[in-house]
Amino acid sequence: MKQDKMHLINKIFNNETIRTIWDKDDEKYYISVVDIVSIISESKDGRKYWNKLKQRLNVEGNETVTNCHQLKLKAQDGKYRLTDVVDIEGMFRIIESIPSKNAEPIKQWLARLGKERIDEVFDPSISVQRGIDLYRTKGYDETWIQKRIKGMQDRKKLTDVWKDGGIKEGKEFAILTNEIYQEWSGMTAKEYKQYKGLRKESLRDNMSDIEVTLADLGEIATREIAKKHRPQGLKENIAVAKRGGKIANNTRIDLETEIGESVITKNNALSYQYINENKQIEVK
Questions:
Q1: Helices (H) and strands (E) in the chain, counts
Q2: DSSP letter assigned to residue 64
Q3: Parallel/antiparallel/unpaired status of strands 281-283 and 80-86
Q4: pLDDT, tens only, 28-74
């Protein structure tokens, strides 16, 4: 089944027409503000309502308006026109600002989510169990789930070693991860996701058991080499990440030689394919 919208958006708004589009560069969904406002406020003129709401948010110092982009979306007449769009965080912030009975169920849902996250601070096992339950609902078996959790623990051990080597979370973690992936798969993590037709979904959740094993081997090898040689700074850690990734690549080459085919596959755990949209984003 082909899909061009984010399923969660459709579910939140009871399958109302909400125009959404995926930005593969930012790896974000953008959602039409006018569509959200029209449905939540039940206004006959959603554009006019949004203009008034923008003025109020600006006066309040709310950054949602500042973070709005403009994107050419398809209108009812089939033509593409520049339309205000926001990411998912901005979408919820706008909903919170609209006094309407239609917004109340979403506000209550957000309140429950907030409470759950606070509960998890006091008892982290709640979040672990929530993750396990989510994987079960997606159809993963118990053995796979156990391996996935162990993989998360191994990843944490690697990032702890990186921190000891002066690596900062966020961008530098991503750079080193990409070096490992590039070395054994020939692709960065982002390119690998695109190759598999993924968007927000986890890459590892959509890998074959062989692909996961190679990814794990690359990271474990990187960790052990870093523990032995204690590289400092991004440049030295990049060199180590390449060495760790090469070890995984050697294993990949040996296996592919034996079986006579590539172990890198486009297959994923999804039952649908995304439709790629043409986009033009203008930052205000």
A1: 11, 7
A2: T
A3: unpaired
A4: 888 888 888 888 888 888 889 998 888 888 888 877 877 788 888 88
**pTM (two decimals):** 0.76
3-class SS at 200?
coil
- Bridge-based pairing state of the strands 20-23 and 69-74: unpaired
For residues 75 and 174, give the distance between their C-alpha atoms in angstroms, rounded to a whole number: 37
Extract the tokens encoding 210.
Answer: 């062989």
Contact in structure between 244 and 225 (CB atoms under 8 Å): yes
Q: Please, is 259 exposed, middle or buried when counting C-beta atoms within 10 Å of its C-beta (0-12, 13-18, 19+)?
A: exposed
DSSP class of 277: P
Judged on CB neighbours under 10 Å (0-12, 13-18, 19+), 271 is exposed
Using DSSP's 3-state secondary structure scheme, residue 116 falls into helix
Q: Which token pair is 220?
A: 């474990």
Give residue-wise pLDDT tens across range 51-62: 888 888 888 887
Six-digit token string for 5: 């919208």
